Amino acid sequence: MAQPELATLDHESRIAADDHQSIRLWLRLLTCTNLIEKRLRSRLREEFDTTLPRFDFLAQLERASDGLTMGELSARMMVSGGSVSGLATQLESEGLISREPVPENRRTFCVRLTRQGKRRFSEMATQHELWVMEMLGCLNASEVDDLMASLKRLKSCITATEQGA
Amino acid sequence: MAQPELATLDHESRIAADDHQSIRLWLRLLTCTNLIEKRLRSRLREEFDTTLPRFDFLAQLERASDGLTMGELSARMMVSGGSVSGLATQLESEGLISREPVPENRRTFCVRLTRQGKRRFSEMATQHELWVMEMLGCLNASEVDDLMASLKRLKSCITATEQGA
DNA sequence: GAATAATATTTTAAATATAAAATGTTTTGC
DNA sequence: GCAAAACATTTTATATTTAAAATATTATTC
């Protein structure tokens, strides 16, 4: 009974079904990301009176002990140069980062965490990690590994299809 | 040789390792979502001179043939009421949606696609589906199914840890 | 049934996003 | 070496986001 029905699914129908499956996967991915992002956003506001972009800015610097240029920050944070510029102005005025000119290339700046920025970030990072653990922690190690592998493959699929079409 | 080393990983170390793995998973998820979102955003701009939130607004209505209230739209789109309100004002002025009062409850509106909105959305949806296929299409059916299952589990993990902590 | 609480939406204020133009610096090509 | 191109950043103008206040309606409670 099942086989004849399957046989009636022609190539076009199957393609259409796959289409919908792709869309469904994309929507599910988006939902998960939105849920996590919103939770982190509200916790950062409640507990540290800050925002996700500002946290992310500091996090990128924490990972790069030699400092980063504005362009590198823009690429790693995946936001426009204008955004990075505005965030940097704020964080600099709060004393959390420094923006020093580079003698060899006067077009660029080297952005670093200040001592205060490091201290402040580490307070937030500890909590941030707990919040993420809280949300992802019920996945066991092999589930996490599976997801990591699948998403790695997905990422390479996405970047394989180049932007300029 | 491997067992003794594993044995030296005490509970705390293993927890720390898991923490980082959770963060890495979260960042990878975010990267994938950002890549897809940016691509869709720029394509929608280039080809239809519109934005992702506006497309999403219409898409939610397309799926709900009986129309939706502003609050339902807000929940399904996972954005604030204020955003929905602003988007509705725009889309209404462009003639793509209608916002009719509901006699039984004068607080709410019933939002629907207009004929023009349906036509416009279907043009965009066709392309949108192709763009998503383009990015996710290199995953085979079983990879997609695996991801769907993993993300479903992830979603239930996230929502299981309730917001109000 | 009047006062209070809950609900649905819009408006407001502040922050953030982008694209594109402007500015200043370095590199390239002749 | 000078003009043109490429590069890195900031500024500008516009659009979007959110949280919270304001508005209006409905439901509850005593």
UniProtKB/TrEMBL annotation, chains A, B:
<keyword id="KW-0238">DNA-binding</keyword>
<dbReference type="InterPro" id="IPR039422">
    <property type="entry name" value="MarR/SlyA-like"/>
</dbReference>
<dbReference type="InterPro" id="IPR036388">
    <property type="entry name" value="WH-like_DNA-bd_sf"/>
</dbReference>
<keyword id="KW-0804">Transcription</keyword>
<dbReference type="GO" id="GO:0006950">
    <property type="term" value="P:response to stress"/>
</dbReference>
<protein>
    <submittedName>
        <fullName>MarR-family transcriptional regulator</fullName>
    </submittedName>
</protein>
<feature type="domain" description="HTH marR-type">
    <location>
        <begin position="22"/>
        <end position="156"/>
    </location>
</feature>
<dbReference type="Pfam" id="PF12802">
    <property type="entry name" value="MarR_2"/>
</dbReference>
<dbReference type="GO" id="GO:0003700">
    <property type="term" value="F:DNA-binding transcription factor activity"/>
</dbReference>
<keyword id="KW-0805">Transcription regulation</keyword>
<dbReference type="InterPro" id="IPR023187">
    <property type="entry name" value="Tscrpt_reg_MarR-type_CS"/>
</dbReference>
<dbReference type="InterPro" id="IPR000835">
    <property type="entry name" value="HTH_MarR-typ"/>
</dbReference>
<dbReference type="GO" id="GO:0003677">
    <property type="term" value="F:DNA binding"/>
</dbReference>
<dbReference type="InterPro" id="IPR036390">
    <property type="entry name" value="WH_DNA-bd_sf"/>
</dbReference>
